[in-house]
């Protein structure tokens, strides 16, 4: 179970809300049962249930566990907002694959409109899906899901990463694997690295966006000789990078 960091106290942890209900009603948890609880960021523990009340389960921490399910390479998937519920698929599947974070963005050919005030429910839903996928995949962290940003904001954020791969459907030259392998080989042993993959919407990227991305420091890469659906491309890119890194 993932709980907020503030639910951890000296030697104990409290699980509330939907998770407490799940432990009590679905798992039929009882005092003495052992569970793994994580703060979704940096701490994971084995804990024993000491009290079950309506809406809250209290656990005694038995031991700190090593965070062994995360890759040393952190892959953030920037996805131009796709239609319908495709963003949910991207978040769910890329979380299972091992993505570290998601940045939805709006680009020239984005079809859907995003109104932050009206759509905060959608963001909550994405985060819920992400948490559930992280639990199912036995992740140690819950990837961060940001609110959609503009193309300009996304370009600015390129500076925060060690490598940015712009997945360009018209890229006939460099393929992602050929770009990633030498970059990984150049990393000191055991060192981590922050990678951003940028994926376009149903209608793809414009030539101007391609030029702006390269100007901002991205490397344009292909993902093979077939055109992937926009919701498939991020999964393929994340899997390829993590596979190449051996994780
Ligand atoms: N029309 C389809 C759809 O509705 O999903 C295909 C969309 S494809 C143009 C969407 C995005 O996926 C592209 O902008 C690109 O980022 C990525 N993509 C798909 N196939 C790719 C490929 N072979 N190489 C690189 N990127 C690719």
Record the SSE blueprint.
Layout: E1 8-9, E2 12-16, H1 17-26, E3 34-38, E4 44-53, E5 56-64, E6 73-80, H2 86-97, E7 101-106, H3 120-136, E8 144-145, E9 149-150, H4 151-157, E10 163-167, H5 176-185, E11 193-199, H6 207-215, E12 219-221, H7 230-244
Explained architecture:
By secondary structure, the chain is of the alpha/beta class. Helices cover 32% and strands 26% of the residues. It is built from 7 helices and 12 strands. The strands form 2 sheets. Strands 6, 7, 8, 9, 10, 11 and 12 form a 7-stranded parallel sheet that branches. The protein has a 5-stranded antiparallel sheet with strand order 1-2-5-4-3. Strand 10, helix 5 (176-185) and strand 11 form a beta-alpha-beta unit. It is globular and about 60 Å long. The mean pLDDT is 94. S-adenosylmethionine is lined by residues 167-169, 171, 199-200, 202, 204-205, 222-224, 226-230, 233.
In short:
This protein is α/β, with parallel strands linked by helices and 247 residues long. The chain has helices spanning 17-26, 86-97, 120-136, 151-157, 176-185, 207-215, 230-244; strands at residues 8-9, 12-16, 34-38, 44-53, 56-64, 73-80, 101-106, 144-145, 149-150, 163-167, 193-199, 219-221. The protein has 7 helices and 12 strands.
Q: Which residues form runs of ≥5 with pLDDT under 50? A: none
User: Helical percent range?
Assistant: 25-40%
Q: Biggest sheet, in brief?
A: 7 strands, parallel
Separation, N- and C-terminal Cα atoms = 23 Å
Shape: globular
**Structural class, judged by helices and strands?**
alpha/beta
Mean pLDDT: 94
Bound molecules: S-adenosylmethionine
How many β-strands, per DSSP? 12
Beta content? 25-35%
Count of helical stretches? 7
| Cα gyration radius (Å) | 20 Å
The multimeric state of the shown protein is: single chain
The helix/strand order is EEHEEEEHEHEEHEHEHEH
